[in-house]
């Protein structure tokens, strides 16, 4: 790494303290080594070359921060776009309701972590739109509500509906066939 890069990172860390050092170095100040007299921390931690090359030409810490924000914000937008695309393609198909809802919840949680949380209404619409025609009756009832249903309540209602459907199908397939002999 270039000496000027290390020097800049030192100045940058001193200006922005813990938050910035954590963001750039991937470490907290506590994990950085201390000098021999234990009064001043040493900031000679390794910095990724991508980060060094991105900020080494910055003349101010604000310029460096803006450069880093631009560099990593684009990755966040790409991640959100990818997750939204994945979410749009999730449908129940032949999966159980529990598997379908788990798949949706995993993507929704990742979206929230990436900075794009979904509202309850958006989540309800996504879940109901991917169920298929066998759930049209319960979808109509939920859509007619004056307020959105919570994920937990929707989960319970859909699981109950699936159990009822499975039970009815089982009864139809196992009902005795009666022959009338004349």
UniProtKB/TrEMBL annotation:
Looking at the record's lineage, which domain of life comes first? Eukaryota
An example of a Pfam family matching this protein is: Retrotran_gag_2
- PANTHER family, A to Z: BASIC-LEUCINE ZIPPER TRANSCRIPTION FACTOR Q-RELATED (PTHR47481:SF21), PTHR47481
Q: Which named protein is this? A: UBN2 domain-containing protein
